[in-house]
Request: fold
Amino acid sequence: MNCGPRLVPAGPLMRDHRTMKFAPFAAAASLSLLLAACATPAPEPEPAPAGPAPSGTQAPADRGEQITPGSARDFEVNAGDRVFYGFDRYDVDNQARETLRRQAQWLQRYPETRIQVAGNADERGTREYNLALGSRRANSARDFLVSQGVDASRISVVSYGKERPSCTQSTEQCWAQNRNATTTVTSGAAS
Amino acid sequence: MRVMFARLAALAAVFVLVLPAARAQLVVDITEGTIDPLPIAIIDFVGDDPRAAETGRDISRVITANLRNSGLFAPVSPDAFIENIENIDLRPRFADWRVINASALLVGKVTVDSDGRLVVAFRLWDTAAEQQMMGLQYVSVQENWRRLAHKVSDAVYERLTGESGYFDTRIVYVSENRTGTEVTRQLAIMDQDGANPSSLTDRSYMALLPNYSPNAQQISYVSFRGDSYAQTYVYDLRTGQQEALFDPNAPRLSDSGQSLSARFHPNGRDLVLAAERRGRHDIYRIDLRTRQLRQLTNTPSDDTEPSFSPDGSQVVFASNRGGQPQLYTMNADGSNPQRVSFGQGRYNSPVWSPRGDQIAFVKQQGSRFSLGVLAADGSGRERILYEGYFVDTPAWSPNGRVLLFTRGDFNREGTDYSIWAVDLTGRNLRRLPTQGAASDPAWSPLLD
Reply:
C-alpha cells in the first residue's frame, strides 16, 4: 500500500522579517556536549545523631609557644575567639557569655584594638536564611560585648552564613562547630 | 574575567510559514498525573552536502534530547525507521511511520544560503490524520546551529502541547570549586541543556543566588567583596559590567548592613530584596534607575527571600515572625500580609510561578528537605515534588512547567551539590550536566 510521494500543495508563502538577536556563540564551546547525562542518586543515610556541644573555650597554647600580650593570638588563646549556638538559635547561652566576658575584659585591657564579629551557620538551611541567621548571631554577640562595656564603634559585624565553614564534614559535630560567632582582632593588636 | 556577551549580533531571521495546519487532532496530554509521552519520530535533518548533513544530524540530536528530557515526548529509535526521507517537501509514507508507533513525525533540511547563513526548514506531521501540523524555517549564522535546534524544539513543543516551550533559554548558576578546605563560588552560564558553559565572574570573590531580569539581559546576585558583608549586585550580560545595588559611599540604608537576593518585578525596573538594618532583616523594594527605596515590611523578625507574583501585584516571602520560618504573601506596597504555608516544618525559598497560581518552596522537616509547590490563594494546598538530603533555590522554567533546584547529596566528607530538574507533576527528575559541583540555578526567560 504505497501511496507514493506526492507534492505538498503549496499555499501562499508568508514572510515575517522579525529581527532576532542572537548571542554570539561561546568561544569556549570545545567542551563536550554533556547532553542528558544523569547521575544515579546516592543512598542517603540519616545524619548522625546530635553529639555533645563543642567546647566554647580554646585549647591552651603549647607550652613552648610565645604569645605576645595584646596580640591577635593572645586574644584567640586567652580570651577565646569563638562562641557557639544551638540549631537555628542566636541567643547567647551561659558558656557563650563566659567567653564573651573574657573577650570584653581583653578588649578593655587593650582599648586601641578593633574587632570584627563574624556570624556563621551550619549548612542545614537555605543559603539566604543562613545569611540572615549568621547576622543575628554576630549581632547578638556584639550586643553582649556592648553590654559588657565595649564601645560599639570598635565592633564591626559580618555574616558569612554557611559560606565559610570551619569544618566541612557532614556530621552533627561539624555542624555544631559551624554555628558560631567568631571574633577577630582587625586592628590595634600587638604584633 | 572572560565575558562572553561582550557584543550581540543582531541579524534578521526569516520565518516562512509553509502551510497552516488544517484540523490536526494530535495533542500531547499534559493533564497532571496522566502523562503518556508522545511517540515522535525525528529524522536526521537532511543536507545537500556532507557538511550540511552533519549539521542536520547534530541539530536532530539536540532536538531529540530536548524533547526526551521534557518527559512529554518519547522519541522513536531511528533504528526502527522504515522510510528513508531525503526530500522533506514530499508527503511521507504515513503508514511506514504509524507501523513503528510514531504519532508525530518531524522532518527537516539544512541548507546554507548565499550569505553563508544556516537555513533550517522543518515540517511536523500528524501520522494518523496524515496532515501537516506545522512547516517553518529559521535562519541564523552558522555558529548558532544549537539555538536553531532549540527554536525548532520550542516550536514543536508549543504546537503539540499548547504551551510555550523553554528550550531556547540559558541558565545562570553558581559553580563551586574546592581546593583543600578553600571553596570558591563563581557565577557561570550555560545553555538550558548544559552546552556552552562559561564563567561570568572569577574566583576572586564569592558570588551567590543569581536571578534573571525579565528581558534576560541582567542578573542580580549576592557577593562578598573583601571583608565586607554580603551585598546585592546587578550584572549586565551584554557588557559584563556590574555594580552594587547600594552605593557603599552613599548608603541609602542608614546604619546599613547586608543586602541579599534580589528578584525583579515584571516591569524589569524594580527589585525586591531582603536587607539588614540594625540587625534585623526586612523586605525592601528598590527602583533600579533612581535607587529609590521603599520598605515593605517592618517587624522585629527576619523577613527574607522575597519574590514578585508574575503580575507584579504581590510579593511572597519567608518570615520567622510566627516562630519557625513560614511563607507569607503581601501586596506589592507591603499591605495585607497573609500567611500561605500551614504545614509542619520550616518553609523557605518561595518563588512565585510564571503562571501565578503556585508558589515553589523548600521545606525542612527534621533532617529531611523537600521541594514543593503550594497554592498561591492561601488555601494551604501543597504538593511535594522531591524529598531528599538537602534542597534549596527553586527556579521555574519560563512556562511554569519545570522546576530547577539545588540538590545536596550526603557525603560524609562534604555535601555534593548539583542542579536538578523536576516536572511540576513530580515526574522526570533529572540532573543537569554541569562540570563539577553546581548550585543556585536561575532560569532565563525565552530568548529573542
